[in-house]
Amino acid sequence: MDEFSFIQSIQQTYYRQPSLIKGVGDDAAVIRPTGEDIVIAKDMFVENVHFNRRTMTPYHIGYKALAANLSDLAAMGARPAFYLVGISISNDWTKEELADIYNGMKYLADRYKVDLIGGDTVSGKELVISITVMGLTNKDNSRLRSSAREGDIVFVTGTLGDSQAGLHLLLNPNTTIHTDEQYFKERHQLPNPRVKFSLDLQEINRVALNDISDGIASEAHEIAEASKVGLVLIEDKLPIHPALNQFDAELQYRWKLFGGEDYELLGTVSPRDWELVKQSAERHQVPITEIGYVTDDSGKVFLQKENGKMERLEKKGYNHLSR
Fold first, then answer.
1. Eight-class DSSP state of 185
2. Contact between residue 133 and residue 78 where contact means Cβ atoms under 8 Å apart
3. Which of 208, 255, 279, 285 could join 147 via S-S bond, C-beta 3.0 to 4.6 A?
4. Which residues share a beta bridge with 122?
5. Which pLDDT tens digit goes with each residue over 211-222?
6. Averaged pLDDT, 296-312
7. Are 242 and 179 in contact (CB under 8 A)?
């Protein structure tokens, strides 16, 4: 299959976004702004770095590549609108497998009404997927990491460490657990970006959000540094799935604090608006937990242990450029 027939095979037959003037088919797409702020994010997924055939099917690869980008938009409080896909394809991948990669993206695109408006296709030594997403927010209403203030409540959606538990099971097929094995695997392969919950927070004046792609310890530091505040996370309030207790205690500790790719949302909000956040979570059936508070310790993150002792929490987690 040549490049042009491949592009034709993935091209949408219709577009959902009224601000799109021209999509796939010319040298560039044309968008007519609607008076909202445009939010743009980009992620790359490289074979044998972010995924491999042992842990992901082609469908999972496409799904997760777009899900990670949609999670970035959720963290910004943006409504997903468009995406572009650049893909480098090695000879190891068949036409059917490539179609499945795009089917994984299409599932999420249909779910969130996101239009594919362009990209690029080249050949290479390994599969590389580069996705750019564009979202829309009300003017000056993006959810920034720099919005946390002393006295805020720290909260998180979902449960922590699930994706790393799933990856562990996929890489170690002889591992035996008694319940929820498929749940953990799907949390790694098919994450659920918290888009609708995030959009439901529009009426709240100030919320800081960060998506948990590299582990909650890393994301907490990013909020603390951007807002010039301190964060205290209370260890016994960090939410984990009950079945995570089947794993070694050290693994549980490491996964919930430093494990990446849960794609949940870490946030801070004023105590007066916390009830509104909980109501939004309930409307969208998103588990949410108060896990700490914001202090004036600029740029510092602490873990409050069960005995009340405070420990400085390191800024570590998944880092693509670490050696």
1. H
2. no
3. 208
4. 88
5. 999 999 999 999
6. 96
7. no
